[in-house]
């Protein structure tokens, strides 16, 4: 996967947290969510168990609530179905961005109110992808592509607990459960990390650099020392939240009696979540670029059937593949994988403790190519 990502990247040669209006009580948020019928108790018991483990391990809050009226001082979690959200922001009075596109397929924290919003579409995607990987021998990127091509409702026999009762009685060690639960644990731990770190909104004005062409303008986003202090700070905040998540997951073992020896409960899923995230980005490149090299590589990776379905639905954004893999506000996922998962492996209870990663050489190649491109860019523009 890492080597394939390197090829994709070089075939070419989220919203900031804001402070809520303190004059308005956050207790009204629950009422608005109810009024708009966007709360969904999807696999509530299972989500509660994972969230409770994360929050208890953090030891910073007396408790949490899910899909219940707001209580100050607790972590308040709202599972929202983004498909029911309107395009307009329903929490604008609280200066919280909650609209269909802002949350779709994601989770987000609002530090000032200690609220986590989790899109249940994300949960359904994780579970469906994990099942396709575990039972149907799909590669993760192919599974993500199939779901995006056909729509999540086409996979209800997998993610709907009324149809698939196995969702609510899976064993800890079932592969799909390891993948999906670990991915959700990493996501929740990351967002809880934002709340623990507090409001770190970055308002520094960025002085734009001038480039002679769009290719060079796009390429400069891979260079940490060229993107400007504002975005470097934003990326460092995300890195801190990742570090917080890793520190939590490093303390959570399987319950006694499940395995012959103690191991980290969520490590396998945390590894897989990074792969899942990169797979989503790879699918996004189909709408972001017209590069023949990238489209050819994706056709091979996905197979002609899924590739053709996705291309038939694509809306050409003109965003460019570099902007997909190097977002302004987050570190590149390949770097998150290299940093966070290496930290996780330092635990004596890690499956990978004391082992070198098979992807280390690919990551080294990735960073070498980045350094070369950035050096050439800086020399050309005298930066």
Structural commentary:
The protein has 383 residues and is mainly alpha-helical. It folds into 2 domains: 2-14 and 123-381, no CATH class; 28-119, no CATH class. The chain contains 16 helices and 4 strands. Helix 6 (140-150) crosses helix 11 (267-288), helix 6 packs across helix 13 and helix 12 (292-302) crosses helix 13. The radius of gyration is 21 Å and the shape is globular. It starts with a helix and ends with a helix. Residues 5-22 have low confidence and may be disordered.
Largest sheet: 4 strands, mixed
Work out the radius of gyration.
21 Å
Please state the structural category.
mainly alpha
Helix-strand string: HHHEEHEEHHHHHHHHHHHH
Question: How is this fold's topology laid out?
Answer:
Elements: H1 2-9, H2 28-35, H3 44-58, E1 64-66, E2 75-80, H4 100-103, E3 107-110, E4 115-119, H5 120-135, H6 140-150, H7 156-159, H8 175-197, H9 214-219, H10 229-249, H11 267-288, H12 292-302, H13 304-313, H14 321-325, H15 333-344, H16 360-381
Parallel strand pairs: 1-2, 2-4
Antiparallel strand pairs: 3-4
Helix pairs in contact: 3-8, 5-6, 5-8, 6-11, 6-13, 8-10, 8-11, 10-15, 11-15, 12-13
What keywords describe this structure?
5% strand, four-stranded mixed β-sheet, 2 domains, 52% helix
Summarize the structure.
Helix content is 52%, strand content 5%. With 383 residues, the protein is mainly alpha-helical. About 5% of the residues have low confidence.
């Amino acid at each position: 996967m890492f080597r394939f990502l390197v090829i994709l990247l070089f075939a070419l040669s989220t919203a900031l947290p804001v402070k809520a209006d303190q004059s308005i009580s956050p207790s009204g948020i629950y009422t608005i969510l109810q009024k708009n019928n966007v709360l969904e108790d999807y696999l509530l018991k299972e989500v509660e168990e994972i969230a409770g483990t994360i929050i208890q391990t953090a030891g910073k809050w007396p408790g949490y609530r899910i899909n219940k009226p707001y209580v100050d001082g607790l972590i308040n979690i709202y599972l929202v179905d983004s498909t029911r959200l309107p395009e307009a922001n329903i929490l604008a009075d609280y200066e919280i961005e909650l609209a269909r596109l802002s949350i779709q397929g994601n989770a987000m924290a609002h530090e000032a109110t200690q609220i986590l919003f989790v899109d249940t579409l994300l949960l359904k995607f994780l579970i469906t992808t994990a099942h396709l990987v575990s039972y149907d021998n799909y590669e993760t990127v192919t599974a993500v592509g199939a779901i995006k091509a056909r729509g999540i409702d086409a996979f209800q026999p997998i993610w709907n607990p009324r149809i698939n009762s196995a969702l609510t009685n899976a064993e800890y060690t079932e592969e799909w459960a390891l993948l999906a639960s670990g991915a959700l644990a990493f996501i929740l731990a990351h967002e809880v990390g934002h709340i623990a770190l507090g409001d770190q909104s970055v308002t520094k004005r960025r002085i734009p650099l001038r480039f002679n062409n769009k290719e060079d303008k796009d390429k400069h986003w891979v260079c940490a020392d060229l993107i400007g202090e504002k975005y470097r700070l934003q990326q460092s905040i995300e890195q801190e939240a990742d570090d917080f998540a890793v520190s939590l997951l490093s303390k959570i073992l399987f319950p006694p009696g499940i395995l012959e020896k103690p191991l980290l409960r969520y490590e396998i899923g945390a590894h897989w979540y990074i792969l899942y995230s990169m797979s989503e980005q790879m699918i996004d490149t189909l709408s972001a670029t017209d590069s023949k090299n990238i489209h050819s590589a994706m056709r091979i990776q996905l197979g002609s059937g899924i590739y053709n379905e996705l291309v038939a639905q694509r809306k050409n954004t003109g965003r460019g593949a570099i902007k997909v893999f190097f977002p302004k506000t987050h570190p590149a996922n390949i770097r998150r994988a290299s940093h966070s998962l290496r930290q996780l492996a330092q635990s004596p209870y890690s499956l990978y403790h004391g082992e070198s990663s098979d992807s280390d050489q690919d990551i080294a190649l990735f960073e070498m190519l980045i350094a070369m491109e950035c050096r050439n860019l800086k020399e050309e523009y005298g930066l």
